[in-house]
Amino acid sequence: MFRVIARAQMREGFEAEAMEAAKREQAVHQLLEQGELMTAGCFKWERNVFVYYECVNRPLEPEVLLPSMAPYLEDWPGHSAPRKWIPMTDVFHFNEPASYEHWLRKETVDRRVGRVAHLKPEMAASYIYFHYQLQEERAFHGPKYEIIAMHENLLFGYQEFPAVVEEPLLPGRLSTAGTPADWNDSRMDLHFQPWEDGHLYFKPIEQLFTYYNDSSKKGA
Q: Could you tell me the pTM of the whole model?
């Protein structure tokens, strides 16, 4: 199993066309039917588009899932070849797939949610430090399918409700015990840029689609 999160930006003036293309996209349905995907979700915030998806046999590029969106997305600089989607870096998860069977949803999911927040740029390293420590020390357990990814200082989070909390099957990568006994001592409140209304942390964003297929072929 491979979890992928990516970010794109809609071309100004073509937001409606981009969103409609995402909602009508047939390629993602074909990949689900072929057993290449277990879960796929697409979310929008302002001109930003985010995709979260779980590949069963091999990692797939976002362009393969959403080819119809390409004409309505900006090109990102930084590579010699034009690109529409930017991979986001996984900076935190409570759990990770140990196998196809392990990752299947055992209960019905009521809601799949995307959310965003901005870190203070100077606090990005601290945020990653605390969260990697928590993640790999298995300091405490949390929602199995929750994941947070970063591009620049923008965070995108994926969640499912009702939350499933269970001990990870895979061992942590750290043998230390540095996570604060009281997580509040990590002072996450100092890490985030407040929204215009004063709210800290994450805010839910608009969902364009979410799909799930539990009849996928077995994969890695």
A: 0.94
pLDDT of residue 214: 77
Helix ranges, 52-179 (H):
62-65, 100-103, 124-137
Q: What is the rounded average pLDDT of the residues 71-79? A: 91
Length of the chain: 220
What's the confidence (pLDDT) of residue 81?
83
The Cα 23–Cα 15 span in angstroms is 12
Query: Which residues lie closer than 8 Å to 102 by C-beta, 6 or more apart?
Result: 169
Q: Which of 48, 35, 51, 44 is nearest to 1 (CA)?
A: 35
Return d(Cα 80, Cα 199) in angstroms, integer.
39
Q: Could you give the 3-state DSSP secondary structure of residue 33? A: helix
Secondary structure of 190-202 as H, E, C letters = HCECCCCCCCCCC
Count Cβ neighbours within 10 Å for each residue of 12-48 and write b for 16 or more, e otherwise. eebeeebbebbeebeebbebbeebbbbbbbbbbbeeb
Chain segment 20-58, per-residue pLDDT in tens: 999 999 999 999 999 999 999 999 999 999 999 999 999
3-state secondary structure of 89: strand
Nearest CA to 130 out of 148, 104, 108, 116 is that of 148
Q: Give the closest residue to 155 by CA, choosing from 180, 185, 131.
A: 131
